[in-house]
Specification:
Keywords: Protein transport, Transport. By secondary structure, this protein is of the alpha+beta class. Helix content is about 20%, strand content about 15%. A hairpin with a 5-residue loop joins strand 3 and strand 4.
Length: about 1000
């Protein structure tokens, strides 16, 4: 029998019109080029195995007529049968498959693993799918029918690396059938190549330290063998490309040595190289960013060194785009949002400037404050305000001559002319200084006393007041309550604390002198009260009595009416007495709570009171909306209290056309009162470029800021529309942005390519992950309290905390390298390991991981964790019989007893500093099969969940949606299909 035809006679990829991608390697017939017979029907049901190579094979049965036209022989379970020419559903014919001559011994494949099954649509002609086979670890299994019309490769065996790459922290993942890509991409375009799977019917090798049973673990929250059937596009030629005409920065994560494999016409996306934060965001890269440069700021969620020069550091002020269009029409063409995120009290030191009784220098027209962008003219006698272009006189006391370069001679002594962020002491007034106060409201009941809660409360307050006296207000007040409200007076000339009692229906402040006292002046009386509080209440109320929590809080707020401050309430029982009685129910009223109060559950200095914010823009721009749990009055933002993680998002619009190649300026000014009663004015400035070239807008966009803005939109809209509608809206916004880039900046590329701009590679996974967070889950298991808690976080957190909240980081600490946990040799930070993708296939059963979401840190110990790691971290050999509470105590008791333990402690400390957590933040330990274990597994957002698709499927459908938008042929609300959105 003649051999296969020459390569040039094989059907080419461009000739294919439809069908499904085929396996790259196929089992060949045992007789050279002849086809083996199909499986024979057994008289008792079932099928007989195909004959071995040394058996005589009867002639094959006649071709069977297919329901959609064409004839096709049924294939064996371990080989593919090339069908004849078939009519494609959309027209055209597929080329006949040419068999290979290489021979393999037939093998019976093992039973399929209990993984998710990707089921393709039924509107194509297809042959029966092959039997599932064992895949290498960390590989997602998709059972898909073979593709018709593709040539096969000869003599190729795939090569899998035996050890994982140390710098990636994850193993390559097998992609689903249905993704293809083009050959080598040109410069500036990102291509994602993939090593081919092993031949059908051949065993594949295991990688790294992964266990075979990983494949058989069903995804959390789903039954085994759950199938998801969606309307998938025809993506046989799908590939992902980067943006054209833009600098494509080298990424060491994507330049690692890959197994050398020959090129195949059946190119599919390598899931390990699909854009993911774990491969693009490198936490070990030492970023040094000068704010006065023309570069985009580094990602918000990584370690970085920033230099404040003329422009505020991105931790204070961050824009969605750093090159803005010259007109609103051009901005609408790009579909890019234009907004600025400001975190005014971010935990970074800034200079304090005191101009005396006259206060800071301001523009006489727009009232903008002096900033580095103002220019001095006429020898320094005038300055030109860059916000309104008005020429102002320089006050005599502020005058300084200018040098030939335009700088003042006192430039080095003026922080407001050098820095982008600074703070002024407010102008002195004749108003009396009102020092804020803290009031502690404490419940007295049998439950709080018998369980030791009351003792813990007073001991903690005593410790805080002694150790953090300089960081808290000078004055404090104490209120206790049960069925009545008790005001305590600690006037320093008293011998004993005095108590005044008011009934639940009388809300007022019975003590005017001695209620709010300086702790150090009345320390003896206050400490005596703390030490003997249980003696003052010998007959506390039972939990079933009416506790007047509402009256106590209202009385405390009246005491702070003139001076301001904060109320800290400690309550364990549901308030049953009026005012403020709350019956037991599961009502959705939390969304109506006043959000503009720096909502948080923890004490977080620094803290500002009575904040008034004004945002000014240069000519042609204006602020149209503000987000972030704020209240607006007369064009100003009002906030009762503001913390270091409170972020205000300001949406900018055009009121005039800007000059191309010019600069635009935005100034954020906040007047507030410190906890010590001092009035300050904090200033932040940002400068943006103005251009008219479309690709520059996408090149200089900031993904973290845009995703944060989308989170603001979602948190706002979910109250009125529900999760289903919000999920669809967020997907539509992303599609509009990507389709605009595809249409205006990459129109010359083939429609079979999914083109993602360099700055927006991670937009799909961030949007998908955000839609899988608790506020947007379509599940009755999510409590209203949890939904609204996350809603408040998404509405006010800064970008550097929104991103890890949406896409948590999972750091493997069971295979640390020599540099991990040690200081960087050149930079000022600790080297931490590369985090892995949020997929169950990346979680090794013998691993130990640090899981952090910007708010909490978990040490996630897997069921079969390595014994050496367990000994170094916990002094145990197995997790059996050791729950999370026990291993937590064991970890703390070691306290860096060995080098490995010290490395892990250093990594934890680096993450705490990076996220701005309290230095005393405790790590929560999680052992497999405990409650928190299932919670962490539900946050592996790249996997398919009960109410949403997997990342790969989402990318696939994103590609189809972009094609529909470009062709204006979208026939349905496909964004609802993307996420299986249903009613709330």
């Amino acid at each position: 029998m003649s051999g296969p035809p020459p390569p040039n006679s094989y059907p080419q990829q461009g000739q294919q019109q439809g069908g499904y991608p085929q396996y790259q390697q196929q089992q060949q017939p045992p007789f050279g080029g002849q086809q083996a017979p199909p499986m024979q029907q057994h008289p008792y049901g079932g099928q007989q195995a195909p004959p071995m190579t040394n058996q005589q094979v009867p002639p094959p049965p006649p071709m069977q007529q297919q329901p959609y036209g064409g004839q096709q022989a049924p294939p064996m379970t371990n080989q593919q049968v090339p069908p004849p020419m078939q009519q494609h559903p959309y027209g055209g014919q597929q080329q006949q498959q040419v068999p290979q001559t290489q021979m393999y011994q037939p093998q019976s494949p093992p039973p399929p693993p209990t993984t998710q099954v990707y089921q393709t649509p039924t509107n194509f002609n297809q042959v029966p799918p092959p039997t599932a086979q064992t895949q290498p670890p960390q590989t997602q299994i998709y059972n898909s029918p073979p593709q018709v019309g593709q040539p096969m490769q000869q003599g190729y065996q795939p090569v899998y690396p035996q050890q994982p790459q140390p710098t990636t922290g994850y193993q390559p993942i097998q992609p689903p059938t249905g993704f293809q890509q083009q050959q080598q991409q040109p410069f500036g375009q990102t291509g994602y190549n993939q090593a081919s799977p092993a031949p059908y019917g051949q065993p594949q090798q295991m990688q790294g330290n992964q266990q075979p049973y990983q494949q058989q673990q069903p995804q959390y929250g789903q039954p085994q063998q759950q199938q998801y059937q969606s309307q998938m596009p025809n993506i046989q030629n799908l590939s992902i490309g980067g943006n054209q005409g833009m600098p494509n920065l080298p990424n060491p994560m994507l330049q690692q040595q890959q197994p050398s494999v020959p090129q195949s016409s059946d190119n599919r996306i390598n899931v390990a190289q699909v854009p993911s934060p774990s491969s693009i965001v490198d936490p070990m890269k030492p970023y040094i960013f000068n704010t006065n440069s023309n570069e985009n700021p580094p990602p918000s969620s990584i370690q970085q060194v920033v230099i404040d020069q003329h422009v505020s550091i991105p931790q204070f002020m961050r824009s969605t785009i750093y090159t803005i269009p010259e007109s609103e029409d051009l901005l609408n063409t790009t579909q890019l949002p234009f907004a600025v995120h400001t975190t005014p009290l971010a935990n970074f030191e800034i200079p304090l400037i005191d101009h005396g009784v006259n206060g800071p220098i301001r523009c006489s027209r727009c009232l903008g404050y002096m900033n580095p962008h103002n220019t001095f003219v006429n020898g320094g006698k005038f300055f030109v305000c860059k916000l309104c272009d008005y020429e102002n006189d320089v006050p005599t006391e502020y005058f300084s001559a200018t040098l030939p370069n335009g700088l003042r001679t006192d430039y080095e002594q003026r922080p407001e002319l050098q820095r982008g962020s600074y703070e002024f002491v407010a102008k002195k007034t004749n108003d009396p200084v009102l020092v804020p106060a803290y009031i502690f409201v404490i419940e007295i009941s049998t439950f709080t006393i018998s369980n030791g809660i009351l003792i813990n409360i007073v001991e903690s307050l005593k410790k805080v007041l002694n150790e953090m006296y300089d960081k808290t207000p000078r004055r404090i007040g104490i209120i206790t309550y049960d069925s009545e409200v008790h005001f305590w007076s600690f006037k320093k000339n008293y011998n004993m604390p005095q108590m005044k009692v008011i009934t639940k229906n009388s809300v007022f402040v019975p003590i005017q002198d001695g209620f709010l006292v300086d702790y150090r002046e009345s320390k003896t009386l206050v400490d005596f009260f703390f030490d003997n509080i249980t003696n003052f209440f010998t007959k506390p109320l039972a939990p079933n009595r009416e506790f007047v929590f509402g009256s106590a809080v209202q009385s405390a707020s009246l005491a702070l009416e003139k001076c301001g401050g904060r109320v800290f309430a400690f309550s364990t029982n549901l308030p049953k007495g009026n005012p403020g009685a709350i019956p037991k129910r599961d009502a959705k009223i939390e969304k109506n709570l006043l959000p503009s109060t720096a909502f948080n559950s923890f004490y977080k200095p620094p803290y500002g009171l009575r904040a008034a914010i004004k945002i000014r823009c240069s000519r042609g721009l204006t602020v149209t909306n503000n987000y972030g749990n704020v209240t607006e009055e007369n064009g100003e933002i009002r906030i009762a209290g503001i913390t270091d993680d409170k972020c205000i998002t300001s949406l900018i619009k055009y009121d005039d056309k800007l000059k191309p190649k010019s600069k635009a300026y935005i100034q954020f000014a906040m007047m507030y009162t410190t906890i010590h009663g001092e009035n300050r004015i904090r200033i932040h400035n940002i400068r943006l470029n103005v251009d008219s070239i479309l690709p520059n807008f996408f090149k200089d966009a900031d993904l973290d800021s845009i995703v944060t803005l989308f989170a603001r939109y979602a948190a706002r809209d979910i109250i009125t529309t529900g999760p289903s509608q919000v999920r669809s809206q967020m997907v539509d916004k992303s599609l509009d942005l990507l389709a605009s880039y595809r249409k205006n900046c990459a129109a010359d590329k083939a429609h079979t390519q999914l083109i993602l701009p360099e700055c927006f590679k991670l937009l799909p996974i961030y949007i998908l992950s955000m839609m899988k967070t608790p506020p947007f889950r379509i599940s009755s298991d999510i409590s209203p309290d949890l939904r609204y808690f996350y809603m408040n976080l998404l509405a006010s957190l800064p970008p550097n905390k929104i991103i890890p909240l949406i896409y948590p980081r999972v750091y493997p600490i069971h295979n640390l390298q020599a540099e991990h946990g040690n200081p960087h040799p050149d930079k000022q930070h600790t080297v931490i390991p590369q985090f892995v993708r949020l997929s169950l296939e990346q979680i090794a059963q013998d691993g130990v991981y640090l899981f952090e979401d910007g708010r909490n840190i978990y040490c996630w110990v897997q069921q079969f964790a390595n014994q050496n790691v367990l000994r170094d971290l916990f002094s145990i050999d197995t997790t059996v019989g050791n729950n999370s509470a026990k291993i937590s105590k064991l970890f703390v008791s070691l306290n860096g007893a060995n080098p490995y333990h010290q490395k892990v402690e250093n990594i934890i400390a680096a993450i705490i500093r990076l996220r701005g957590m309290e230095p005393s933040k405790e790590v929560q330990f999680v052992v497999q099969n405990e409650f928190l274990d299932s919670t962490l597994r539900s946050q592996l957002f790249e996997d398919k969940s009960v109410d949403s698709v997997s990342y790969i499927d989402f990318l696939c459908q994103i590609h189809r949606q972009i094609q529909n938008k470009l062709s204006s042929s979208s026939l349905q609300r496909d964004s609802e299909i993307l996420l299986m959105a249903t009613t709330y």
